[in-house]
Amino acid sequence: MLEQLRFVRIPIASLGEASGDMLDVVGLELAECLEQRARFRSDSRAYSVELDASGTIGPPTVAISLRTVEQLEGVSEPLVSCGWSVEKITREVCRDRRYYAGLACRDLSGNRIELVVRAEDKGRRYFPSRDAGVVGLSHVVLGSRSPTAEAAAWTNVLGARITDRVGAGVYLGWDDAHHRIMFVPSDRESFLVVGFEVESIDAVMQSNYFFLDRQVGIFRGPGREPASGQVFLTFGGPSPGIYFSYSTKSEPYSETRRPRQFSATPDSYCSWGSVTALAELGGAAS
After folding, report:
1. Would you tell me how many other CB atoms lie within 10 Å of the CB of residue 184?
2. For the segment 157-171, what is each residue's pLDDT rounded down to a tens digit?
């Protein structure tokens, strides 16, 4: 049922510096400038990241596509039964957000999830503003008060599968990648890591030195995640509790492999031994 991670919408205080960093630091392409909003591409999608300085949207939003309107209508009541709040998005707002139909949802922890149908792609190829080796929007990590409870709605209603667990954290996938969403325990009002796949380990290490040279805050890595096999580098985003990450392609999902349980220790988050300031991902406070 779930098709593709489509975009994230991030609240920010002002567009100026944040928009510049999306181009000069993250290496995305400016797609649209709207009133108090800016959209950025990372691949063939119409946009992968929207920055919103309107002051009206609350916590960040993660949008995921379903195949049909019938599927969208069919999940509404079951999600409400799981404790989610669900609201149909008006046609006017759908057009503005570049998709055909959608549901605005909030999960048990208050994370905003947007389920959408027929989100737009672009015919023109993605042209990065910096040669960071970005291939596309890959995955997100979301904070949760109860990852296991969140996973139940994703698996029982939306058809996702649990691929692995680290401590109380849960990896969820639905295609050939190891995961597209990870829920981790967090006490923050919002915690979000937006992951972009890059071409190679070389691209990860080149950005590592690029960030060190420009004093960009690195919060995690370079390192290698044992569960997914991804080599990663996580750095600061445009708002508190928001981070971006580059990672290599994950190991492919295999139907013959059982979901594994990793302990809640630092080496379960990084097999190279890198340390992190993020408690949600194996930092000292976890």
Report:
1. 24
2. 999 999 999 999 999
Question: What φ, ψ does residue 10 adopt, rounded to 5°?
Answer: -120, 125
- Closest Cα partner for 85 from 61, 58, 107? 107
pLDDT, one tens digit per residue, over 17-76 is: 999 999 999 999 999 999 999 999 999 999 999 999 998 888 999 999 999 999 999 999
Alpha helix locations (H) across the chain? 15-21, 69-81, 91-96, 147-156, 201-214
DSSP β-bridge partners for residue 193: 141, 243
CB 86 within 8 A of CB 102: no
Cα→Cα distances 155→54, 65, 80, 152, 238, Å: 34, 15, 15, 5, 31
Residue 205: CB atoms within 10 A of its CB come to 15
What distance in Å separates the CA atoms of residue 106 and residue 229, rounded to the nearest whole number? 30
How many CB atoms lie under 10 A from the CB of residue 265? 11
pTM exceeds 0.90:
yes
List of the chain residues with pLDDT < 70: 285-286
Indicate the DSSP class of residue 107.
Answer: -
pLDDT computed for residue 285 by the predictor: 53
Give the separation between CA 191 and CA 197, rounded to whole angstroms. 20
